Amino acid sequence: MTGEQGQSHIQGQLQTSIDEAANRGRLGARVATHPGAQSDGFRGCAVAAVVVLGGLGLVLALTIEPLVALLPGGLLVVVLISIWVDQRTSKKNQGFRLDLYEHGLTAVVKGQIHAVRYDSTSVLQRSIRHTGATGYTEHWYTLTDIDERKVVLRGRSDGVVKKGQFAKPQEWGRAVQQGVTREQFPKALAAIDSGESLSFGKLWISREAVGSARDSAEWTQVEEVRVIEGYVKVKMAGKWRSLGATAVTTPVVSEMPNFFVFLALVDHLRRPWNGPAA
Questions:
Q1: β 150-156/222-228 pair status
Q2: Is the pLDDT of residue 51 over 80?
């Protein structure tokens, strides 16, 4: 079997395993695939560095005091260790990809295939904005798969795909948000209509109000709910405030499971009093 045939065989086995995971999770038809980066291009530069440092060390050892050659020799050892680590990581990320389906997704991360259903998963999301001339936003989505395992999906908004990240996070991130909201909102609303209170991290929602362990606000008082610098803020009487009394108890988006389901419920419950969210 040639190298090309061997690679094709591996890809075929991977696709079969992904299809089996999707079928086990009853995810429906595949709608999109997003490739992930197994390596970030480090190896090519590292190999060049090995050649340069090796040659320099040899020249110094032969022409000058041999002890002087220890400096490039030490750097050469560091580069070789880095190449070894990169190879191990790349092998671990072999087959790295994300497939979106009607009712969920599959993700091949660190050699494991995860099947996630939108109607049962818990999603935590976090974004970090990097400023500067080449500013970009990093996105993290931590989901629970059908086997109760955690899987982390990462990406950057600037089109650069680093090792361990997926391309186009705006697209697959929006698909995850919309899919989870579509599947979980009706059940959540039915629970609230029956008199239950639902928890979203440090906040809870009921038919009458939204609140935390320390404070609450009735929907008749809530003018708007918005994310400000990563914190969930409520606008009341024209002023923005948190429903947590301290920095520790202030609701943070990155700690709220299924945050977009929470927003959809907020919009629905406050609308009779204040109209749709801005």
A1: unpaired
A2: no
What global pTM score does this model have? Answer: 0.75
- Sign of the CA dihedral with 238 first, then 248, 227, and 130 last: positive
**Which residue matches tokens 């709220």?**
256
Residue predicted with more confidence, 233 or 134: 233
Radius of gyration, alpha carbons of the chain: 25
Q: Six-digit token pair at 28?
A: 């429906």
Q: What are 222's two structure tokens?
A: 């809530």
Tokens 């599959």 belong to residue: 106
Buried b (16+ CB within 10 A) or exposed e, 113-128: bbbbbbebbebbbbbe
- CA of residue 114 relative to chain centroid, distance: 14
* Beta-carbon contacts of residue 226 (< 8 Å; ≥ 6 apart): 232, 233, 235, 240, 278
How far apart CA 247 and CA 149 sit, in angstroms, is 30
- With 80 as the cut, is the pLDDT of residue 15 above it? yes
CA distance 3 to 93: 19
Spatial CB neighbours of 210, under 8 Å, sequence gap ≥ 6: 203, 204, 216, 217, 219, 222, 225, 234, 243, 266, 269
Encoded tokens for 63: 């022409």
Q: What angle do CA 15, 125, 202 make, to 5 degrees?
A: 135
User: pLDDT digits over 107-118, tens only?
Assistant: 999 889 999 999
In what helix (H) or strand (E) does residue 109 lie, and over which residues does it extend?
strand 104-109
In whole angstroms, give the CA distance from residue 107 to residue 41. 22
